[in-house]
What does this fold into?
Amino acid sequence: MSAAEEVVAEGHEAVEAVPKRAMTLSTTTSLVVLAVLLIVPLFAKNFIIFQLTMLLIYGLAVLALNILTGGSGQFSLGQSAFYAVGAYVTAVLMEQFNVNYALTLPVAGVICFGFGFLFGQPALRLSGVYLALATFALATAMPQLLKLNFLEHWTGGVQGLVVTKPDAPFGLPMGQDMWLYYFTLVVTLAIYIFSVNLLRSRSGRAFMAIRDNEIAASSMGVNVALYKTLAFGVSAGITGVAGGLSAIAVQFVAPDSYTITLAISLFLGMVVGGVGWLPGSFVGAAFIIFVPNMAESISKGLSGAVFGVLLFLVIFLVPHGARQVAIVSQQLIGKLKKN
Amino acid sequence: MAVVRLQFAALSAAFILCTATNGTALAQKKYDTGATDTEIRIGNIMPYSGPASAYGVIGKTEEAYFNKINAEGGINGRKIKFISYDDAYSPPKTLEQARKLVESDEVFLIFGSLGTSTNAAIRKYMNEKKVPQLFVASGASKWNDPKNYPWTMGWQPSYASEARIYAKYIIKEKPEARIAVLYQNDDFGKDYLRGLKDGLGPKASMIVLEDGYDTSEPAIDERVVKLKASGADVFISITTPKFAAQAIKKAAEINWHPMQIISNVSASVGGVIEPAGFEVSQGILSATYVKDGTDPQWNADDGMKRFYDFLAQFDPKANRLDAAVAFGYGAAQTMAKVLQMCGDDLTRENVMRQAASLKDFAPDTLLPGIKINTAPDNFAPIAQLQMMRFKGRSWELFGDVISSELGH
It folds into this structure.
């Protein structure tokens, strides 16, 4: 354990020396990852492309939670509620009002931002486990709210709504899956760059000041209430866009899709990816998508238990998630270069 | 020139011969993805984990049944490879697993996947891909829609057909009845209510009061009081187990003793009748289509003997009293029957054609007299049930098997 602590301690030094490193990858690594993300779909089966699309979408949702928890230090187990609202906004706009899919995403984002900002107001009075509980209530309430009678005309009630998958525009020679992947990739990149810049900006520093010490932050002149609700709003907005994308990719929305299990999965993805380290969000998303499948292939009857063991191993061996792995490998590469 | 012409004639003759023989060969054996000379790959998606994991037993029973078929030499010499994945009852996961089955495992068809919203999530995909989504394990009536979804078919009687059977029974036994309906306000309850009204047809005015409740309500006592005040003498309770038990109890408490009908979903002795109380439950009516493993009258039944033998040999850990086991066995048997009917023409189109031409097929675990019949415009395999009355500590079947077809 002491070795792990050392690594993280060293990591923290790096945080102080070069703040942006703490949140992102180096430029070279980013470009390599981007190149891989661009090229892989050209050689993969449609099913793999679909899984990669889901990875990006879940990655966005985890990233949103990361801004909230890793950035401003607030807990949320209610991300599935924002995800659901985003998905339903997109689905209802596309199917009932014939709005173009690309235009539904900003709408989903804005509505969820407002929703999150409003929810952030009462949440101001709560912190730590109490905030987690309040958001938990939001997540458990959402599937039932979506079934409400007076909304059924739009939402389709328990039956849910089937969404039509868009074709590639301008007669581009690619399948629906591949087009949707690149579309998602562009949206993801835009949001990722926005998030990195947000956390590096004045607002981002305010978030982190609040996370580290609320009293100190407010005595330095940071408007704690505003920035806390703002963090909630931004996080909910990004989650809403992710939800909207998922509605298009899965082609179906139903209340049963957005239960508390989803919120817990996203939370888990954040922890596995490394709290506060944005690229880790996508590693965490990969974990919540692929590891349950792996667990199932090991033992069908005990898939839950196998998943638990794997999760425990990860938390035990690398308590700071993918971030720790990244730091260790960075140091190894550094040493090799010196030699 | 003459020589050239001759050559050409000979060539074309040879060509015609070739295509002709090819044609006959193709007519004998035709395959789509997922079927070969030695193997047929069948996909399946079940909630092995999550809120509906109790139904996972169905998937395990089906797997055991295909093991039995393979041990006996397979279907027309082909072994069944049954690939079953977990979706934890979450629709997005169902789509992921369905795509994995179709695109990565390259299954011939997907059989017996469980759940209403989970199957709704993949219905469009399956129909776009033209891959059969056969014998869906859900009681919604929307699986019987061959016009819009020609690649999707249900299996069990739909909620609507069950309700139509109650309508028939009431019209016959109590033509002057005043009916009060308590229904769960979701797709299950509404499907049912629609079936009931269809069944009553011109006599739908017999319903004097219908009252919907939400699953989020803690208790429905007041609604039962209201229904009694309507002066009804027939009480139809379209409820899930918890609410069914509450309604039985409350009706007895306020001394209301109408003819009471509860849905098959809530006909569980352990889950509903016992908590409500055996005494107040005497005479309650319901309907069923599967033989009850707890009922001693089936001990000498040939079909059930085969079922018990199968369990002893291939699935010894299964609980024979669990209705889900009998369900899985019956569904798998229907699947095997369809594949047998396909012969060597294992194309997806032919599978749907054969599935839509089942005639009087009777799986071992269904009640005697209940037969599976389908047609190109009828994708509802089981459409018959038998009424039962609660007596003592168990259900007692009575009357004939009733068909849900509209007959007025």
Remarks:
- DSSP finds twelve helices and 14 strands in chain B.
- Residues 15-26 of chain B have pLDDT under 50 and may be disordered.
- Residues 338 and 355 of chain B are 6 Å apart (CA to CA).
